[in-house]
Each structure stands twice: as structure tokens, then as C-alpha cells.
## 1
Amino acid sequence: MDHSANLRCRHCGVTLASNLKPVEAGFKWVFDMQIDVVPSGRFAIGNGSYSGLTKDHIIVHLDDLKSLTRPPDDVGRGYGCCGYWDGHGPNLVCVCGAEIGFELSDCAAPRMAHFATTDVMLSRSDLRDAG
Ligand SMILES: [Zn+2]
């Protein structure tokens, strides 16, 4: 499957990231501090090797995201010394208000965002009105 896909909110349909391709064959999971887990423009499906929470989640690069805000109780949602962790509930909120994603961006965390497929979907970006 070489088609690009858009990451979209299942609750309202807004595009959260555009023209993503699957990670390349031979992709390896690396979870070092401050290292991007997937390259910009790519997505991967979590296999649970980082945490059970990420299993089967769609994992993307932080810089590819748009149309997202923070929950009202932001600081309680896993804010570390300078960025986010994913252990205290979703910390990425869609413009429609749905709490849909988990960002990891603290200096002691690998950098990524992950989303459950119950909250987001991937639809081919080269098809008009797809999905
Ligand atoms: Zn939404």
C-alpha cells in the first residue's frame, strides 16, 4: 500500500495530519529520549513494545499534527518537566472537543503522538470524499 492517507477524527471528520505514508519496510522501534519514533510524514501501528497503551494505536510525528488543542486540565494530564507524557489520559483534544490523542514530548520521553483507532481513522488522501 503506497497510497498516502490522512489521519482524521472519527468524531467530526477533521483532518489531523495529511498525506501520511506507512513507515518503510525495515522500520525499527526506537524509544530513546527526545528521539522521534516515526519520521515526519509517516505513521506506524503500535505493537505494544513501548507500553500496552500504544498497542494497535496509530503513531505519528508530532510536527505533522494540526487541529488539536489541549484539555482544560492540561497540567494534570501528564505534563513532565518540559513536555508531555501519556500516562494520565489523553492530552490531545480535537477541535470538536473529543479527547483523542496522547502526546509524548517530555525531555525524558521519546517523541511521538498516538491515537486509538476508535477515535481516529486513516483515509486515503488521494480520493475525494473518501471515508
Ligand atoms: Zn474531532
## 2
Amino acid sequence: MSEFDHAVDGDLVRGPDGRVMVPDDVQEAIRTLIRWTGDDPDREGLLDTPKRVGRAWKEYCQGYLDDPGVHLSRTFEEVGGYHELVILKDIPFQSHCEHHMAPIIGRAHIAYMPTDRVVGISKLARVLHGYARRLQVQERLTAEVAQCIQDKLAPSGVAVVIEASHSCMTARGVRTPGVQMMTSRLLGCFLDDQRSREEVMSLMGY
Ligand SMILES: [Zn+2]
């Protein structure tokens, strides 16, 4: 088993300095990429770059070490008869697109309609980050967050809306800064009942 396989298993290999070890083949791949862009990986400023990039990517993709559903396993049933919408708005997140490995920077709104249990509100953000810190497409990220909440909490409805800008579009390709992509996934009552849908969308600011 290489160090890299080991790391994917969630057991990061750390050096004596406590920092994540970046296997040689990963460093070599980054050196190759630097050479391909037209620079010299042996010049002083770039010497430690392969290690830094390797560690940075392990952090960007931390979600592979996480089972996002775990964050929803502790629920509270004492909700004092509260059966109305719970909404967490404007959660900033960062992800990377799987087509270009370029940053996706955005914010998400997550809502659910509890039946008999609720979760600590910060847990919804943890679910988002667990899926965002992977190579993603925004459509799948939106759907995965919604489905995870549906599966774990069995609420009567879930709504996830994500707005994000994709660096692969703003910094390269058509180079159109300021463009936001919007995706939504509505389940249960938010899909079936127009009044619930209007309520959640208006609370989200749409
Ligand atoms: Zn892309």
C-alpha cells in the first residue's frame, strides 16, 4: 500500500514535523504540471511548491475523509411542538469543479420541514462542506446535500439552493467574471405543495 492509498483511507501520514506527507509520485506529478505550464520546477521559488500544492489539495478534498451523514446522527426530539420550517441561509462554501479542478465559490441555503426531530443548525453546514470538499459539479452537490438530509432526518420536505461562481468560467474559457450559477433541489412538501415552496423560496430571498 502506498502512502497515498493510506491517506485516502482517512489515515493521513504525517512527518516528524506533524505535517501531512506528500508522496513522491504526487510531487512529481505537480513538477510535471509546472514544467508543462512553461516554468522550471527546479528554480528556488518553486522548489517546495509540489509539497504545498499536495497538502493544499488534501485539504480542498477533505470531504473524501468524511461521511457527511454522520453529522446528522445526533438529533433532538424535544422540539416543543415546532413543526415549521428550519432554514440556514447564506452558508459560504468552497468546492472544486471536477472538470477543471478549479475553485467553485458560493453560498448555500438549506431548509427542511421537521417531522419529529431536528439537528443542531451547524450540522447542516457540516453536511454541505462534507460534500463540497470534493471534486464536484454544482448540480450533484445540491442533490447530495438534499438527499443526505432527507435520508437521515426523514423530514416532510428539504430545499437546497446553491449560488456559486465557477473559476473555470470566470478566470478561463469565456472569462465572464460575476456570473453566478444557481441550482436547487426540492424534495417532499417543497416539491409538492406550492404554498410551502413559495414560503421557503421567499425566506431564502428569492
Ligand atoms: Zn469546470
